[in-house]
From TrEMBL:
Organism: Bradyrhizobium zhanjiangense
UniProt keyword Lipoprotein present: no
Phylogenetic classification of the source organism: Bacteria, Pseudomonadati, Pseudomonadota, Alphaproteobacteria, Hyphomicrobiales
Coiled coil: none
Keyword Transcription carried by entry: yes
Name of the protein in its database record: Crp/Fnr family transcriptional regulator
Matches recorded under InterPro entries: cNMP-bd_dom, cNMP-bd_dom_sf, Env_Response_Regulators, HTH_CRP, RmlC-like_jellyroll, WH_DNA-bd_sf
Amino acid sequence: MSAASLRNTTGIMLAGSDALVGSLPSLLDPLCEADRRRVLAIGREEVLQAGKHVWRQGDLQNGIYLIEEGRIRSYYAAPSGREVTLAYWFAGNFVGGPDLFGTGAHVWSSVAVERSQVTFLPGPALRALALQSASIAVALLDALAFKARCYSAMAQMLGTRSVTERLHRLLVFLSKIYGSQQGREIVIGIPFTHGDLANLIGSTRQWVTVQLSRMQARGVIRYHRGLIVILNPRALDLEVV
């Protein structure tokens, strides 16, 4: 899936319903040209190589980052060292918050999964713009509400669904939002390791490996070098119910 097709899409996350985390326009899209220029004028462009942290859990917040290109992973690390992936974010989304204006400490980490280009918007300057322009303030509120829906959907899944249901639901979500139809098969165009999937559903890599092998043996999916192909979407939907 190309960067262009990923623009204006939701991030990748665990959600019980596609409708809960529908696509979100870029933070800049609803703004008039004058307001868009005002926002970009306070920004500073940065390039993050794969593996580079945007920030780490516990760092002081100082603003938000608009994603222009690439993919950013947000995750929480428990004291034990175990990680839970909150979401993968693409171009058109932003990372940062919930304190958009740069106060307090970050409660999770964000890291570039691949080479990414971002624009940093400093919190104090962004707050000043929000006070001056109702359109900018509303755009920020809409973006923050979208993030709240995403994380609420994830919390609901973790609290109410079994780990098996969570894996099946994640595969359904990926096939509907990021899959491309190729004959009777649906190819999910973004590669995921077993560890990636485990971190998204709150499980272990070993458990995911066993489950994917079983689903492959039943002819539900095919998995090879991170590429997931849904062979029988109807069977996968039935297994989620």
